[in-house]
Amino acid sequence: MPRLVLTSGEPAGIGPELCLMLAARPIKAALVVCADPDVLAARARTLGLDVGLELLDPSGTVPPHRAGRLCVWPQSLAVPSQPGRLEPANAPAVLAMLDMALAACQDGRADAMITAPVQKSVINDAGIVFSGHTEYLAEACACPRPVMLLVAGQLRVALATTHLPLSKVANAITPALLAEVLDVLHADLVARFGLARPRILVCGLNPHAGEGGHLGHEDEAIIRPAVDAARERGILATGPVPADTAFTPRSLGTADAVLAMYHDQGLPVLKAAGFGEAVNVTLGLPVIRTSVDHGTALDLAGTGRADPGSLLAAVQLAASLATPA
Length: 325
Description:
Layout: E1 3-7, H1 15-23, E2 30-35, H2 37-47, E3 52-55, E4 69-74, H3 91-106, E5 112-115, H4 120-125, H5 133-140, E6 147-152, E7 155-159, H6 166-172, H7 175-191, E8 199-203, H8 218-232, E9 236-241, H9 243-246, H10 249-252, E10 257-260, H11 263-274, E11 279-283, E12 289-291, H12 309-322
Parallel strand pairs: 1-2, 1-5, 2-4, 3-4, 5-12, 7-10, 8-9, 8-10
Antiparallel strand pairs: 6-7, 6-11, 11-12
């Protein structure tokens, strides 16, 4: 049975209530959440959720999940949290939850970690430079090249660049970057997803993949040689292909994953196809990490209208990736 550790994310957002909603579901795993128990208890009262909280010592074992009960590794906040109200003083505790979950995976107490959404802005407002879970975990693991992969059913979309302003994307697309990303994507599709010879469709950067150089030089000068070099290393990569046709059913039928060049080139398509049920997976880490496909939804926090579908999908995918075939 896979051992899963979940972080509750930004306490003022929907993360705590998603964890509580998840607790009501039958899940075939040992499951524990890193959270402030007071926040969970208060949110359960607000929403009328009948969930029993069982506080555990992080050094001990986690029992199999039982619907209606939520095991908790406690991490107290600096100040009380209210739904929808961000508090920079609580940012260190939010990151401590991540550190707790990561440490459990690294030392063998857990098989995978799942993260509820955090609020990047409030962490930075606290004076902590933070661009996202992906980058934070990669630095903590000394991982030189993390790769963000979004999964919605059979659709898998990876990103060459992640949380980067659009004005900086073109300069960031280099032969070295693409070689590293393609190597990581190929390796984890094999090792994590069990695809013996994964087929990767590589998007171009410019409209029409550069139109033979008339709409930009990056596609022919950088992306195509990187794809050719990857094929020489045994990776079944194809491209660059125009991004506006890469996601047609015909193109997707020839690929196991699509590599987009930047965040908003690939993710709008994936989220349109499976928003609320998609899962964010960080490739290239020595541990398994999945997450939701949405943000903290401060306006929904405490209302009971949040949808736990993506978190449930993230837990199910983590359990699958952590279970040998």
